[in-house]
Amino acid sequence: MKDKLIIFDTTLRDGEQSPGASMTKEEKVRIARQLEKMKVDVIEAGFPAASPGDFDAVSAVAGAVKESTVCGLARAIENDIRKAGEALKPARLSRIHTFIATSPIHMERKLRMAPEQVLEQAVKAVKWAGEYTDNIEFSPEDAGRSDLDFLCRILEAVIHAGATTLNIPDTVGYSMPEQYGALIRNLRERIPNSDRVIFSVHCHNDLGLAVANSLSAVMNGARQVECTINGLGERAGNAALEEIVMAVRTRQDFFQCDTGIDATQIVQASRLVSGITGFAVQPNKAIVGINAFAHESGIHQDGILKSRETYEIMRAEDVGWSANKLVLGKHSGRNAFRTRLSELGIELSEEALNAAFARFKDLADKKHEIFDEDIQAIASDEAVVSAPEHYRLLFLKVCSETGETPLATVKILDGKFEREGKAEGSGPVDAAFRAIESIAQSESELQLYSVNNITSGTDAQGEVTVRLQKEGRIVNGQGADTDIVVASAKAYIGALNRLRSGLERLNPQL
Ligand code: KIV
Ligand code: ZN
Description:
Blueprint: E1 3-4, E2 6-9, H1 25-37, E3 42-46, H2 52-64, E4 69-75, H3 78-87, E5 94-101, H4 104-111, H5 115-129, E6 136-141, H6 148-161, E7 165-170, H7 177-190, E8 198-203, H8 210-219, E9 224-227, H9 241-250, E10 257-258, H10 266-277, H11 298-306, E11 326-328, H12 334-343, H13 350-366, E12 370-371, H14 372-383, E13 391-399, E14 407-414, E15 417-424, H15 428-440, E16 445-453, E17 462-470, E18 473-481, H16 484-501
Parallel strand pairs: 1-10, 2-3, 2-9, 3-4, 4-5, 5-6, 6-7, 7-8, 8-9
Antiparallel strand pairs: 11-12, 13-14, 14-15, 16-17, 17-18
Helix pairs in contact: 1-2, 1-10, 2-3, 3-5, 5-6, 7-8, 10-14, 13-14, 15-16
The structure holds 3-methyl-2-oxobutanoic acid (KIV) and zinc ion.
């Protein structure tokens, strides 16, 4: 019998700390439900003391999720811990995760506390958390740069105070795999009663080593990995859940443990997170990138046709890809569309289903072959429209010709009024954005513009992400269409709607 590797997802907390990735309460609940469906063991839903919005979101997730444990983050401060305890009250299974920095640089320059004070505060924090739950996680922040002897002392003390999971964060992504694995081994060997707790790892990807470090820790006895969908997270992100899960599953010859994750839900989770945050997944991203299972070279294709295992170590369908199956066409009806959505595990409200079906018909007119990926893109677009739709694209015409300046004409519903704008630009997309701005006058700054193809071929839908910044608020918008200028205009308008709605929180984390 192999050990269980606990999957702790922190997309809704550390993932949300990515600039521009902040989510509304409803969006968090939607993602949490997908994580629960995927059988994630622990969902870190947020940082309740950070803001009333975060408190509400953690409470809402706690009320919505029944199978996974819902966790709230708290600094080692009484008020934070009480807020987390209160926010988690609706949860069937709850955990409080408290942390304090232990590296010399953090203790001296950030906390301005002596190591003994830090130790004392950590013990108090675990005891306060114990008033709410007996499922308590403690993290010595910046453990990767902390002194081993001090780590051993503080961790021994928090076990004694009631901590049940000890999480060892490589907060700044500085560790090397061998070193980090050895750290976990040393802590397990040196701390009295270490066999009574679960050792957890939380790695950041600043040097691109988050997954490697996490797996090295697992090889050395860690039995919980903290990770995020698509590797979303502070700065360069956290270890990607999909990579951890599939590495452990694919190399069962190597690992002494396995997860309980339903991997067939991975692609859906990836799409949902990408749709909600507006963070596109790079095409060559392991497991969830559009090219992750595509074989381009003739030699590879020939090998695959003769025997799949020649070039494939995993099956695309095992992580939720549908093998680019042609599923529906122009003549498919609403029922067939609804059935395919439910086969893909997507549930939409009646209103969203109607809107999605109309978009599907529209797409089927332009594109002969509709794949599951197209349907998923349409559905996640409809499912994530959470900002009230103040602006809506009604019409777009762009004239673009070699040697001429592109000119865009756009008609937009602006509240109740139909308005028209015209503008020139350095390219068709630039002209379209300027035409929209001539109406909206948002005075926002474009921070990111990216285009990805959803399926292959020149008739594929382009999925555009636009990120706007105004007065410290950062919002994303996404749009998909076979015409990338239209997709761009939709994405821009989506971002404007979010900017206007005020749904984004300025500082989701403290
Ligand atoms: O990276 C980090 O140290 C964290 C802690 C709060 C666990 O996110
Ligand atoms: Zn972190």
